[in-house]
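Annex B. Sample input.
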Amino acid sequence: MRHSRQRATRSTILAGSVLLALSLSSCTNASQAAPEPAGSAASAGSGAEAVALNEAARDLLPEEIRAAGTLRVASDPTYAPFEYYDTDNKTMIGYDVDFSDAVGAALGLEVEHVPATFDTILPGLASGKYDMAMSTFSITPEREKIVDFVKYLDGGSGVAVLPGNPKNISMDPLSMCGKKIAGQKGSIQSMDYLPKFSKECVDAGKEPITIRNFPGQTDANLALTSGRVDAVVADSMSLAYQGKEADGQFELAAGEDYDPIPTGIALSQDGGLQKAVTEATRGILDSDYYQEIGDKWGIPDSVLLTSDALDKK
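Annex B, continued. Sample output.
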């Protein structure tokens, strides 16, 4: 069955508080000014320029999307190096922007980047406001009940601390007991990890964590640098990148990532786009462009995937 671009079949169910509670991921932007890409801007062109049309993927598009010629992609532009505003404060740039442009190019579609606050993106996707969402969404079982995903990275969480880590905080939950720890509202860190960590503290006879949730990752990072919280838990790649770009005002605490899980493109289960986007993504993962944009934005090779990952649960 085809669905119009104003599809609302599941919107009553999905746009409510349940989906809001499932908007689990993290987003980070440490500095007020947009940082420069890790590599030269010339090191990788935009996806629209660098990726060829994928006829097999385009053939899988719903007719209404093909006819419209535009793919509306929602992101929270507070999360460098994945999505954030350029120095003009209106042009969205970043790894996810380049990747979604590449998906659009493979499908023969123009991409319209739509800014949104993180915890409103999945409800907007469900209601038909957007066609696709890329905002470094961790793929969780709870979310997979509500939306479809296509993997494109595999990373974990870390904790940002002040230089030198004066309070000796790490991703060991017991190091956070009695501390004020920040996360972004709607993220997997603030809604899942931190409450679980706090319970571990209480179960061990220690003080609970004081969890501070902020609407944007910028707000959480500023709370750290201003001394209002002791640490910030978010995606480790962004925390490391942003700490460096913020002239060392904070740093990623030493230690391995916590719970590495895939990061995915989010799609409405009623939108009919998953097969087309999966095929487009498969081609991108197999291309030189995937490595190029990883290098451009400082994404470590350890979190990159091969196309056979799309065939695995």
